[in-house]
Amino acid sequence: MHYILLAALLSACALADVQTQYYSFSPAVGSGSGQPYSLTGTGRITAVRVWERYSNYITGFQFRYGLVWSPIAGYSSGDLQEIELHDDEFIWQISGKYSHYLQSVVFTTSKGRTLRAGQPSGRSFNMYPQHPMAELRFISGRFHGAITSLQAHWGISYSNSTALH
Asked: How far is CA 110 from CA 12, 49, 81, 93, 130, in A?
């Protein structure tokens, strides 16, 4: 009985280890003050919206998953920047600059296209997944007047996972 229990435990640990390789997160950047947000949805991210204040700092984010827009994280004030992704395209990198607020952000797609917003001043950051087939699944952070922190969560999408087998 102990051998069966030990074998089951080892199998569960091995499967858990394989699973964690496909998911990662990039630690938060920014001051982190204010209310928390998390932009999540079902399926792949198909479009991204970013609001910037006077070409200065980032006030809000919104993602579209499939055909459904997420709630807005932060505020929809200022100038709107938007990118719509192609069917076989995904976000594989987020970079930018921050001080108290998120000053600028660049979303880079698997096809090399970018969405840029804000004014690049402050400390630099660069976020990307640990697994080469992973993509941006959702973001989280905090806002207070504008976006004060951002962290990225990466994973294999269902359409990418079939290539692993």
From this structure: 33, 17, 19, 8, 15
